Each structure stands twice: as structure tokens, then as C-alpha cells.
Amino acid sequence: MSACLWPGNNPMMQLYHDQEWCRPSHDDSYLFEMLTLEGAQSGLSWNIVLSKREEYKRAFRNFDIVYCSKLSDEELEGIRTQYNVIKHQLKLKSVRSNALAVLKIQLEFGSFSNFLWRYTDFKPIINHWELDGQIPAQTSLSEQISKDLKRRSFKFVGSVTVYSFMQAIGMVDDHVRSCLHHTNNR
């Protein structure tokens, strides 16, 4: 069986592809982590973000949503200068604002997972692409979710970022059909 081509020969990218990408998750902390990392990626490569993932975990206390919601501007500046994270000030501030938005959603829907997964009737969308090049960068569903997130004060959640996020949390399985990790081959 052939695999998806996008991880290349990079061991870190291959590990992410094999163990996480397109695997359904309903854990709010993990969902918040992936939302944060996908937002940090905006304009950068996923490889760069993954290489800084452990620093993000240290800086944001394993993506503790309540902790992140209470970070002051001074604390965010300290994270920017003391940790090997993406230094973009607005991306770092979005961690706090997105954590606050997640907390509101948890009150309304019971969990961030319930809010997100209702868009797909709580089942992953299993695609059957033959080639990596067929995988879209965004869809009408990612556009819909993006608009809803923005309306709820989320930052760095454009349609392309949201589609990558959907792949990251397994709402979408975009492994090529011949990949060992496609849902139908596991």
C-alpha cells in the first residue's frame, strides 16, 4: 500500500500523519491544542509548528483551557520572549481569546467537541481520494464552521485553517485511499 505523500521523509511529520492526522478526537483539550497549532500555522509550514509543539505545551500548560483564558498581556509577552513558540503577537493573544470562546461554547453545548462534531452528525467524513493533490484546502463546511467560529469571537479561524483543523481532529479523513492509515484500511 502506498501512503500519503505530504509527510515526505520527515520523521516528525510521518509520526503525526500515522498517529494523529484524521483520527477522530472528542477531547476538548486536544481540540483546543489543534485549534491553537493550526492558527499558529497560518502562513507557515506545518513542519515549523510541529517542531515547536512541545514548547507550546510547556508555555500553555498542556493547553489548559481555563489557564489560557486567564493569561494577561504581560504573561503572553513572557511566553513570546521565553518560549520557542511562533512570536506573532496576535497569534499568541488568540490563544487567550479562543480559550475564552471555548469556555462559552462548553457552557452552551456541554463541550467544545459537541459543538464541533454536530456539524457532521457526530461522525467523521470519510473521503476516498486517489492522490494527495485531490485533497481540498477548504470546503463549504469549513467555510460554514469558520463563519460560526468568527461570529463567536474566535481568531485565526479562516476557512483553510478550519479545514486543516477538521483533518487534525479527525472530523475529516483525507488519507488517500491506498494509505495504510485511511479509515477503511485500519
UniProtKB/TrEMBL annotation:
SUPFAM superfamilies: DNA-glycosylase. Its EC number is 3.2.2.20. InterPro entries: Adenine_glyco, DNA-3mA_glycosylase, DNA_glycosylase. Zn(2+) binds at C4, H17, H175, C179. Pfam families: Adenine_glyco. The keyword Zinc applies. It comes from the Bacteria. Gene3D superfamilies: Hypothetical protein, domain 2 (1.10.340.30). The keyword Membrane does not apply. It is an enzyme of class 3 (hydrolase). GO terms for molecular function: DNA-3-methyladenine glycosylase activity; metal ion binding. Keywords: Glycosidase, Hydrolase, Metal-binding, Zinc. GO terms for biological process: base-excision repair. This is 3-methyladenine DNA glycosylase. It comes from Desulfosporosinus meridiei (strain ATCC BAA-275 / DSM 13257 / KCTC 12902 / NCIMB 13706 / S10).
